[in-house]
Amino acid sequence: MTIPQDQKPCIDLHCHTTASDGALDPEQLVARAAEQGVTHLAITDHDTIAGLASARAAALPLGLALINGIELSCVWRSHTIHIVGLDFDHTSDAFNAALARQNDNRWQRARLIADKLHRLKVDDLLDKATAAAGGDVPGRPHFAQVLVEAEVVPKVAHAFKRYLGAGKPGDVKACWPELEEVVGWVNAAGGIAVLAHPRKYRLTATRLRELTADFRRAGGRAIEVSVSGQSSGDLGFVAELTRREQLLASQGSDFHFPGAPWCELGRIQKMPEGLDPVWHHFRQPVSASSAQSGAWNSR
Fold first, then answer.
1. Which of 132 and 146 is assigned the larger pLDDT?
2. Any bridge partners for residue 22, and if so which?
């Protein structure tokens, strides 16, 4: 007797490694994704593809398909917005030049955070935060880690509550490019620009509709409809936005670290019916049959 196999792929298109603000290095994250049953994965580190090569090497023997991914920071009407880029050409000279500029912006922000926290008298704060980031540009989680190690605060949560959270001294806004420019980078590299976790921006429904419309007019093609920790009400609202603007639908866990069951690789709320999945529009489209055969290969 033939036992039917479940051919439905498990697709996670948003997660982070130590190349930005994640806790696992690319190899560890790929291994964890495979253990969780993920078949197709995009690592979307903030403004960098530094972990892409090592992640791809780790994914190959596990039979896990790795899609090129990144999460880019930009500005829309004074709000910091994140754009996920998927399935782009990572060898594009223009795209990599844009990432170099983003890297410069991040270093400028890191230096400003260190200056703002100078009064805490932690020796070599920037150097220690950089070491915590594995030599890459440190973000607020890395500064928080150093403050814990220096016994300025007992836990990372306290560091954000007192010094690094919204409105606190270390909450430094970077000089990000405009939304239209960042969407253009992704499109020029042959990728798909995705509006990341739209309900996390704390915009009113009206403003979010305006953002979505502007994003589409700028050339954006998809929205993250299903993300970890999202209420059913938010899921329905974002799904309706997607239909209204005739955009593709994406999904991802936004995984950063182990130990948070509400935000685990591959554990994503089921996407509502009637939406057009972004993975059907990759250069090599993902389907149940391609997942089963292992035929999908990233460029």
1. 146
2. none
Tokens matching residue 263: 């935000």
Residue 66 within a domain: yes
* Residues 272, 230: Cα–Cα separation, whole Å: 13
Residues 6+ apart with CB under 8 A from 251: 11, 12, 13, 14, 224, 225, 226, 227, 268, 271
Query: Taken in order 125, 130, 134, 140, is the CA torsion positive or negative?
Result: positive
CA distance linking residue 189 with residue 202, whole number of Å? 30
**5 within domain boundaries:** no
Q: What pLDDT score does 289 carry?
A: 52
Domain that holds residue 279: 11-99+191-293
Average pLDDT over residues 214-226: 98
The mean predicted confidence, pLDDT, of the chain is 91
pLDDT grade for 288, boundaries at 50, 70 and 90: low
Cβ contacts of 27-31, under 8 Å, gap ≥ 24:
27/54, 27/55, 27/57, 27/58, 29/55, 29/255, 29/265, 30/55, 30/58, 30/59, 30/62, 30/64, 30/66, 31/58, 31/62
Residues 6 or more apart whose Cβ sits within 8 Å of residue 242: 223, 225, 248, 249, 275
Spatial distance between the Cα atoms of 117 and 75, rounded to a whole number of angstroms: 25
Q: In the predicted model, what is the mean pLDDT of residues 167-194? A: 94
SS3 state of residue 70: strand
Tell me if 119 is assigned to some domain.
no
Assess whether pLDDT exceeds 90 at residue 21. no
173: pLDDT strictly greater than 90: no
CATH number for the domain harbouring residue 17 = 3.20.20.140
Q: What is the pLDDT of residue 40?
A: 97
Say if 260 falls within a structural domain: yes
Residue 134: predicted pLDDT: 80
